[in-house]
Amino acid sequence: MNMKTSISVFVILFSACLHAENKIDRIYVLTPDWIVAVNDYMDDTDQLIYSDNKAEFDKILPEIEKMEKDEKPNWVAIKRRARMWQNGYEKFSKQHALMSDPKFFSVLSEDDAKFAKPQNPVRSIHWVNSLGDRKHREASPLRGCFNYEVGHYAYLNLPSPLQNGKKYTIKQDDGRSGTFVFDDRKTVNRSIKVNQAGYLSDAPQKFAYLGAWVPSVGAVDFSKYPEFRILKTDDLSEAFTGKIVLRAKDEKKWGYKASQSYSGEDVYEMDFSGFKTPGKYIIYIPGLGRSWDFEIGKNAVGAAFYTAMRGMYHQRCGCALDGKYTAWTRGLCHPPPVYGCKLLGGGGQWFLDSGEKAAKNSNNFDFEIIRQTADLSQKFDIWGGWHDAADYDRGEYHHRPVWDMLGLYEINPRAFIDGQLNIPESGNGIPDILDEAKYGIDIWKRSQDKDGGVSGRIETTQHPGKRQMPEFEKLNFCRSIPTRQSTMFYAASAATFARIIKDFDRKMSDEYYNSALAAYKWAMNPANSREKTELTIDMKDEKTKKEEKVKLIYKGKDERVCFAGLQAAVNFYLVSNDPAFLKDAEEKFAPDSIRYFKSWPNYLIVQWGLFEYAWLDLKGAREGLREQARKELISFADQELEPQKNSPYRNFWFDGKSRSWGSGVPSTWAKYAILAYFLTKDDKYKNSALLNLDFQMGCNPLGMVQTTGIGQVFPCEIQDMESRSDGIDEPVPGITTYGIVDVPYGVRGNVYSMEIFSVDNDKESHKLYFLPEGFKVDKPEIPMWRQLGPHSSINPECNEFTIHETMGQTVLMLGAFLGEGWTPDKALKERKPKKYGELEGFFWLP
Fold first, then answer.
1. What CATH number does domain 3-180 carry, 2.60.120.280, 3.40.50.2300, 3.40.190.10, 2.60.40.2320?
2. pTM over 0.90
3. pLDDT of the residue at 585
4. Which residues contact 608 (CB under 8 A, 6 or more apart)?
5. Residues 6+ apart with CB under 8 A from 98
6. Where are the beta strands (DSSP E) in 728-828?
7. Which helix (H) or strand (E) is 553 found in, with range?
8. Which end of the chain is more exposed for a tag (fewer CB within 10 A), N or C?
9. Contact predicate 167/179, CB 8 Å
């Protein structure tokens, strides 16, 4: 059977098993000449695969049921089943070929004469995206065969342009069809990128952007669209008119070796900096389409701030999330007790005794240390803190979002009030943002020993393995032994909180001050050093596979107390007026903090200490040293300005360096501009921060907000255990993922291509590629800021998040310039989750 015949047979078979609606899943308009048809064929393809080999799949299904019941399955049979599915996928998943054929599609219209008779596109270019986890139909006999939901995209170059106000139908030879009206005032064009959270009225600069990329074709030419208009959303009346200007041609000069394309687009800008009238608007480009809605106003980002802050509430550990406060409910998770063990501080920092070489896979060493040294006779009443991604450990690094929230309150106190966030503490007379910070502090306060030492890690013996809500996690959690560093982290948090809360509750302030002081004294005492602590554990030799004794040496350096020591000492001085604390700040901490700040700042903990030392009113302080701290902070913000100006979408990142683990998230770098602004009140830094905010909130090549629940297009598949397990289509709102970082290996090897193994012979395999010509390689050259691979359990480089690398600084960025006394409306407080069909980010545009 030749290829043409096999495809025809496939279409007949495929048409017979389509879902009832027979609809194309999405139709997007890029220009009147280019449209995109999107289809998800996974269920239909699975039905064909299963029908073709039903007896064999049914025979192995009991092994899957065993695995689901935590019983021991026949892993050889499960492996065979996966390969049976692969071979079936090769046989029946022909969409990449079908959707590359213009004759597979026809476009017709009852009111556009040029499409009165069905017309084939001039060209069709096929693409595939990971949409996330494979979403099997209930009790599917093929569940677990494949991990990805795959979206098939066809870029269709029409023979004649769409006419405004006309209705069109796209028909596919497999029986699917879709109808749409092209109305340039109503049709959302995803080529138009806006800040979906909103623009502040007094933002020094306000931009929207225009750009699109067609695989195998390149940048879309929008040069024939000279102007844009801002229309009011309620009546579409005109409020502003401006010019569309080419900002940057697509060039391969970015990234590693300065050889990558930034976005694949020719990027056009729409400048409406002078337009300050509060209201709700759209960008309208005559003949092309409209943008998503956005707001302009002093509190335009209020809803986004609320959502991001409540992302912290949704990550709370040690409590239930009640329907009174959220539609994403959860039972009580991880209650006490917590047990003792010999893990030190924040974990990690273990070296082999044979030399300076770090112990391999230090996280697993942490797990092993807990497993082998857990002392169930030691019980601690410890609970609280926040979860990270699919992990339930809490660590000393979780003080960072505490500092972001406390610092945010200090720089913009009039914006934050009690009752603002609809959390259980609302109504207690304390601004809700301080209540949330306190929730993150209290877990460490509960871990404090009588002598003042404070733990730096609450951890168990493994990452969560089973897809289930956190309240069903039954592993024992242990408390690490305090170190000087972990204890000083707590001292900084508790002392800062004690100073700020004094205006609201003097008794609470005294309580936290005394606890912080005990921690500070313990951390300052060299006798409490854990450096060079030795520990022997059993580990399996990688070569012999035999258990052997391994001696580890802990090298967490005492000098790292300076990471949080400056902040602690400054706050103790302000509360007590004791000059001894100022002396500590200036002689023991400030010089080292400045020195450490000059290295990679995203992973160091000195920013807020330096800022408070430079910014707060410290009578008797050494002005020369304060000025040095001030200059270091401002200098870092200054180095962002020129690269940001040259970036097509005006985001900052260190081009040519890794964008992983928060380094590609705009709020990471907006933090430094915010600190510089409050040190100088120079609008260039405010502008820098807000331009980074624009990028994170949708002014980027994908037109995607990088925080769940904000705007219209946001991540729908994230690596969050609750979002995976709660049975709710929409992920937990307020979570900022690592985002547009890279095309993960799993996507390249399962969605863009697939190695097909023989069912019966491990040594026989061949490779299939599903992308168009020019991309049929193991690592296709996709523009930098289009590199994404959504999934809720794998591909962590894009889909994971942490409260300290992505969430805390997003709260800071959204709240730094929020207007006075903003409160959420009833609709926002009572917002319900959306279904997949309502989630605009699910079928995201490549």
1. 2.60.40.2320
2. yes
3. 98
4. 403, 404, 407, 567
5. 7, 10, 11, 104, 173, 174
6. 753-757, 765-769
7. strand 547-554
8. N
9. yes
